[in-house]
UniProtKB/TrEMBL annotation:
Location in the cell: Cytoplasm
The gene coding this protein: dapF
Residues that coordinate or bind substrate: 13, 64, 74-75, 162, 194, 212-213, 222-223
Protein name, as recorded: Diaminopimelate epimerase
Keyword Zinc: no
Length: 276
């Protein structure tokens, strides 16, 4: 049997996109980590499957490099919407997409006839520790000093449908592999966590690196950039609109009427088929 796929990336956060409406897709962790492997597979930060939804236009399921399933993917959902439009699964330019974290509304961005990106209503950020989830002795974790490994960090925990913890650093040049794993496996995060390390450049420009649960360091994380903007806003480091620069590029993030909006590119790298 063959599996048709499209490799796509949103500022370097790359996934293998597969149409699960017109073909059967193996969604076991073993298969996902095998095809995502950069030496023995197609290569990517994981796999994203396009499915029919009973309530909205489409349903997105996303899987990390280790095969674990994520609730939401910010860079992924922009590419997901482009995939649906480019593959003629829809001619809508605004798509309602069902994710494990609920509805996300994606407005495609065009250059001429070509879809080059999207603006996404990422819904309301969540600070409630129980919902994120974070085991902590207060309702919210905002700029709280917590020891991770042998160092104390000031942490702000935010859910964008998936769990994030944001911390501020003087320099982005550090051993993310060691520190990222300490956060990812810390007992205060019962469902693990995505960790964002942020350098504040000014009140409308933030730079970050991310360590994603299930995938390790990636070039970018869309939900992470939203969590960073919101954490920085409530900590008084930025205004309602900010550019967030990640290793793979920039996203524009805006807080409007309690919702976070993310705008960024979506790019097709190549298409193919593999024997499964
Ligand atoms: N890269 C993504 C987030 C992917 C999911 C995450 N690793 C999780 O398991 O929560 C993004 O762009 O948001």
């Amino acid at each position: 049997m063959e599996l048709h796929f499209t490799k796509m990336e949103g500022i370097g956060n790359d996934y293998i996109y597969v149409d699960g409406i017109n073909q059967d897709v193996n969604m076991t962790p073993e298969f996902i980590s095998r095809i995502s492997d950069r030496h023995f597979g197609i290569g990517g930060d994981g796999m994203i499957v396009i499915l029919k939804s009973d309530i909205y236009d489409f349903k997105m399921r996303m899987f990390n490099l280790d095969g674990s399933e994520g609730m939401m993917c910010g860079n992924g959902i922009r590419c997901f919407a482009k995939f649906c439009y480019d593959h003629h699964l829809t001619d809508k330019k605004v798509l309602n997409i069902e994710t494990k974290a609920g509805l996300r509304i994606v407005e495609l961005v065009f250059e001429g006839d070509e879809v080059v990106g999207a603006k996404v209503d990422m819904q309301e950020p969540i600070l409630d520790c129980k919902e994120i989830p974070v085991i902590f002795n207060q309702e919210k974790m905002i700029n709280e000093k917590v020891k991770v490994g042998d160092k104390e960090y000031s942490l702000t925990a935010v859910s964008m449908g998936n769990p994030h913890v944001v911390t501020y650093v003087d320099s982005l040049d550090f051993d993310i592999e060691t520190i990222g794993k300490q956060f990812e496996h810390h007992e205060m995060f019962p469902k693990s966590v995505n960790t964002e390390f942020v350098e504040v450049i000014n009140d409308h420009y933030l730079k970050m690196r991310v360590w994603e649960r299930g995938s390790g360091e990636t070039m970018a994380c869309g939900t992470g950039a939203c969590a960073v903007m919101y954490a920085s806003y409530i900590n008084g480091y930025c205004k309602e609109k900010a550019t967030v620069e990640l290793l793979g590029g920039k996203l524009e993030i805006e807080l409007k009427e309690g919702h976070i909006f993310m705008t960024g590119p979506a790019t097709t790298v190549f298409e193919g088929k593999i024997k499964v």
